Amino acid sequence: MKKITVAIDGFSSTGKSTLAKQLAKELEYVYVDTGAMYRAVAYYAMQNQLIGSDFFDKIALIQALPKIQLEFKFNADLGFGEMYLNDENVEKQIRTIEVSNFVSKVAEISEVRSKLVEQQQEMGKNKAIVMDGRDIGTVVFPDAELKIFMTASAETRAQRRFDELQQKGDDVSYEDVLKNVVERDYIDTHRADSPLVIADDAIEIDNSYLNREEQFAAVLELINDVV
Ligand code: C5P
């Protein structure tokens, strides 16, 4: 069977990463969560007081980029790579609502994007990869054999994210999560560099009413048509 590149893009909390992980496991492909990379850069900016609720020193962040080393290290128990920032496992730290509140501002910066896109293209150069994000089918791998674009209503997505955060013991309100989802959608679709748009050749899946199994089966069928 030929090895392909599967690009999964879409709005936040549409279940992209759950689907991508399932697919990677089934196909024995590498899974790359590009959102984790943008989140790690945002976390670095927060830790170094470069971004806060009323300030953002973009120049300092751009200057610091050579010092930001990102790496996925495979965790055999989990079956996928975890995000390391300068050799520190930051998986937990990057999933907080605070990071979610800053990440889209960090992801608007072209210098940040070009550094991360270059690393993503390197990771996928041998194919056999499932990568999820916002610009995978449009910018990172415009030649991907299969492009999926996932959508769901903002309320459905906020409820999912809220449930996830609550399970982890994060003290957040549904309203705050919904506000964050709507704000990120706005910034991600309106930024000048690589805005979130559906690629012409992407297949759109609205999963508001699809459960995980139905969605997985549908995409697996699409993959079987390509390989
Ligand atoms: O996928 P996730 O919700 O973790 O992504 C966090 C944020 O990172 C997005 O809201 C977006 O601003 C940014 N991002 C991006 N391009 C990607 C992946 C994520 O701009 N390929």
TrEMBL record:
Residues where ATP binds: G10, F11, S12, S13, T14, G15, K16, S17, T18
UniProt gene name: cmk
Any GO molecular function: kinase activity
Signal peptide: none
Family note: Belongs to the cytidylate kinase family. Type 1 subfamily.
Compartments (UniProt record): Cytoplasm
InterPro entries (alphabetical): Cytidylate_kin, Cytidylate_kinase_dom, P-loop_NTPase
Organism this protein belongs to: Flavobacterium psychroterrae
Class in the EC hierarchy, top level: transferase
Ranges for domain Cytidylate kinase: 6-224
Protein name in UniProt: Cytidylate kinase
The EC number(s) this enzyme carries: 2.7.4.25
Keywords noted in UniProt: ATP-binding, Cytoplasm, Kinase, Nucleotide-binding, Transferase
Location, primary (coarse class): cytoplasm
Pfam family, any one: Cytidylate_kin
Swiss-Prot/TrEMBL catalytic activity: CMP + ATP = CDP + ADP; dCMP + ATP = dCDP + ADP
